[in-house]
Each structure stands twice: as C-alpha cells, then as structure tokens.
Amino acid sequence: MKITVLGAGNIGATLGKKWAAQGHDVIFGVRDVTAAKYQTLLETMTGQAAVAPTVEAAAAAEVIVLAIPGAAVNETLAQLGSTLADKIIIDATNQISQADMSAVATIAAAAPQAKLFRAFNTLGWENFETPELDSVQIDLFYCGESSAGQETVDQLIADIGLRPVYLGGLDKAPVLDALTRLWFTLAYEQGNGRRLAFKMLRA
Known about the structure:
Blueprint: E1 2-6, H1 10-21, E2 25-30, H2 36-43, E3 49-53, H3 54-59, E4 63-66, H4 73-80, E5 88-91, H5 104-110, E6 115-118, H6 126-129, E7 132-133, E8 136-137, E9 139-144, H7 148-160, E10 163-166, H8 173-189
C-alpha cells in the first residue's frame, strides 16, 4: 500500500518505519526535502521509503496520515486542496490546549470526498515503537467512517503491532480525545511516564 506520512517527527517517523518494514511503500511529506535529518531517517529504515515535498507526496498516496503539529493543519490542507479527494486520511494531530483537539471537522470540510479516520493520537510514540507492555499487546482506540477504509485502517494499526479497537463513526472523536486527555493526565500530571497505554478487557 502507498502511504504518505505528512510529518517526520517522533510519531510520523515511528509509524513510517514500522509500515515500511511491513512492506508498505512509505513517503514522508515534508517542507524541506534537503534537510539532513530526513536522509538520516531513511538510512535507519528497511523497505521502501522516500521523502518528497508535501503536495507531491500526498498525490502519490492511497492513505495519508497527518502527523504534523495541530497548529499546522490549516496551512497544510490549503496546500493540498483536491489532492485529498477519495483518499483514506488518518488524523493523528492534537491541539491539547483547544477544546476540540482534533482536526476532524477541518479535514472533513476541506476534503468531503475523503474517507476520514482519527487514530494514533491517544498514546506517546514510544508505544508505537514498542507496542507491548509486560508482554501484553497495547490497544489502539480509533474512530472513523464505517466503510471500506475501516478494514485498511484496522490492518495498518495491526501492522504497527497494536490491537485496533473501533469506537464508531466520527461523532466518537470527542470520546477518543477524552482518552488522549486521560493519557496526558496519567503520564504527566500523575507522573507515570510516557510508557503508559490502555487495554480493553472483557468477559
């Protein structure tokens, strides 16, 4: 699968590495493709991976993952325009200081034909790099349109090594974001550290 990861920070780089190692064709969409840090990133990876300008990278993708700062979403969407149509888009952005942490509404308005999901926003990147704690697989909760795209997102989450737990449609984004706030509270305010994750248990 052709996956474009917009952003190559801790979250974007970690996801891209995992997907490339699983056989996906990964392109990191970035502003400055000549920056040395991106070549260094590619040298640490196995599989098919490249760096390209944001618009070029998005145009080549079947799946686009927004792993950029929340404050950069509007500018990025303005650049991409119709490039987003009919693609699977995963919103992994967070604006912790805002009442609405996600970019779901903004993305939906900019790309109404896209298949939109919210995932990879509830945990620190370390839990994507090592998706187990005490030999227990970490769960990743996510939401989005119940469509053909859901099966793809399920598989991409599983390819990271996490167990996907689907919460429902995009109306469940506030529920998911409450889980993100819980993670920040436990990790930082309660001093539990970033290697903290969630597991759904049922009888």
